[in-house]
Automatic annotation (TrEMBL):
<keyword id="KW-0057">Aromatic amino acid biosynthesis</keyword>
<dbReference type="GO" id="GO:0004764">
    <property type="term" value="F:shikimate 3-dehydrogenase (NADP+) activity"/>
</dbReference>
<dbReference type="InterPro" id="IPR013708">
    <property type="entry name" value="Shikimate_DH-bd_N"/>
</dbReference>
<feature type="domain" description="Shikimate dehydrogenase substrate binding N-terminal">
    <location>
        <begin position="6"/>
        <end position="88"/>
    </location>
</feature>
<dbReference type="Pfam" id="PF18317">
    <property type="entry name" value="SDH_C"/>
</dbReference>
<keyword id="KW-0560">Oxidoreductase</keyword>
<keyword id="KW-0028">Amino-acid biosynthesis</keyword>
<dbReference type="InterPro" id="IPR022893">
    <property type="entry name" value="Shikimate_DH_fam"/>
</dbReference>
<dbReference type="InterPro" id="IPR046346">
    <property type="entry name" value="Aminoacid_DH-like_N_sf"/>
</dbReference>
<dbReference type="InterPro" id="IPR041121">
    <property type="entry name" value="SDH_C"/>
</dbReference>
<protein>
    <submittedName>
        <fullName>Shikimate dehydrogenase</fullName>
        <ecNumber>1.1.1.25</ecNumber>
    </submittedName>
</protein>
<dbReference type="InterPro" id="IPR036291">
    <property type="entry name" value="NAD(P)-bd_dom_sf"/>
</dbReference>
<feature type="domain" description="SDH C-terminal">
    <location>
        <begin position="233"/>
        <end position="262"/>
    </location>
</feature>
<comment type="pathway">
    <text>Metabolic intermediate biosynthesis; chorismate biosynthesis; chorismate from D-erythrose 4-phosphate and phosphoenolpyruvate: step 4/7.</text>
</comment>
<dbReference type="Pfam" id="PF08501">
    <property type="entry name" value="Shikimate_dh_N"/>
</dbReference>
Amino acid sequence: MTRAAVLGSPIAHSLSPHLHRAAYEALGLYDWQYEAFECDEAGLPALLDGLGPGWAGLSLTMPLKRAVLPLLDTVSDLAVEVGGANTVILSEGGRHGENTDVYGIVQALTEAGVKPPHGATVLGGGATAASTLAALRELGLSRANLVVRDPARAGETAQVAERLGTALSVRTFDELESVLDVDLVVSTLPSGAADGFAGLLAGVPALFDVVYAPWPTRLASAVEAAGGTVVGGFPMLLHQAVRQVEMMTGRTDVPVEAMRAAGKAEIVRRAAPGS
């Protein structure tokens, strides 16, 4: 049995098991197993040390993406730049960290027909915002606005921008209206946190909202009603998982549509009354 898992805290909500297991089934990898383990920063070193030779890789969610870096033997250049790894590949050569969130964001935007933006504003300053800045760089954007509640807490993301070579303008939410003359707004805020800005943001040409449930968010509905292009968080989650499956299994024929169907089915199941 070859094993893989997603780690994080809280982890019960994770869609990763449904996505990865759907891939294994479609690929005929019946001797592969994918699990979910509750794990915080304090428990991560012991968990990694306890993994045996049958392990292929790990998916990491919050709060582990930054905490894992000093525990790895090698780290990809992109994960170093972004300051976080959401993927650990396990082999005889040790633990290798990768970041597939950036790939997931680029694929989600491209799939939805969002053209490379001339300007972008990112709401929130956490790990997903950092990955978003890297994705924008891959799309050709070397300048972006970052809107946060407290600029003093945006230091890590500002350092990411510096490593990426991205010129970053940091603003507070009181100044949001001044940075909306852009092609794309990305909200990395938790569910409900952007609701109060729905009216202000309704006229933006394109919105990427990383929330995937409940969907649509009030913000997404406002932008869509005004004729803008809206991309939700599920496509990003899907495509980062596709890349993880490729890295862990070595397969290039990863069944994107089977994974998409499994993820959407689970979201629908969870939204049903009584679930």
